[in-house]
Amino acid sequence: FAMQECYVQNTAREYAKIYAAEAEPLEGFGEVPEIIPIFLVHRPANNIPYATVEEELVGEFVKYSVRDGKEVNFLRRDSEAGQKCCTFQHWVYEKTNGNLLVTDLQGVGMKLTDVGIATLAKGYKGFKGNCSISFIEQFRALHQCNKYCEMLGLKSLRTTHQKQRKATSAKSKNLPNSSTIKKPVPKKAREPRDFISSEH
């Protein structure tokens, strides 16, 4: 668990560094959120041999996004740090073609810690996150762009999500009603089948 925590947070930190490199030079963008590093420590003499160590954040601890991606926190929408965290999520989502989302952004001011990452079921470039794929779907449906998204030239997710929904509903309208089509079903198909669990 400690290794997974380090792996996720430090991966998110690498994305945050690239985001900062793109955002900081933009006129008027200002300070960019930073995900602090987390380190794994092996303590062989201890009953719990592994621990994580990170910088202590002093000040008011704020959750800028909840783990499932719902935008319910006013500090997320109304504060500069909250808006920039929201833009960071949008930026990562767009850079990875919707395959990855940094979630659970929280911390003190612009310093963030204890983040999560959601990936599609297949993962992204060999990386699998620690959050449900539903967080990506919820983010895509609920995200509201702000001025920082516009400064970075990010595409609105509203139009993309609405187009996907219209395409899906149009496909379902064009499908024939299954009750009007009668196909002969071989007797073998009616017999109960053995299912093999895909869980490992």
TrEMBL record:
EC number(s) for this protein? 2.7.11.1
- Extract the PROSITE patterns matched here: ALPHA_KINASE
Q: Does the keyword Calcium apply?
A: no
User: Which residues fall in a compositionally biased region of kind Polar residues?
Assistant: 169-181
Subcellular location(s): the record lists: Basolateral cell membrane
Q: For this protein, what reaction is catalysed?
A: L-seryl-[protein] + ATP = O-phospho-L-seryl-[protein] + ADP + H(+); L-threonyl-[protein] + ATP = O-phospho-L-threonyl-[protein] + ADP + H(+)
Protein name, please?
Answer: Alpha-protein kinase 2
Organism in which the protein naturally occurs: Brachypteracias leptosomus
Q: Which gene encodes it?
A: Alpk2
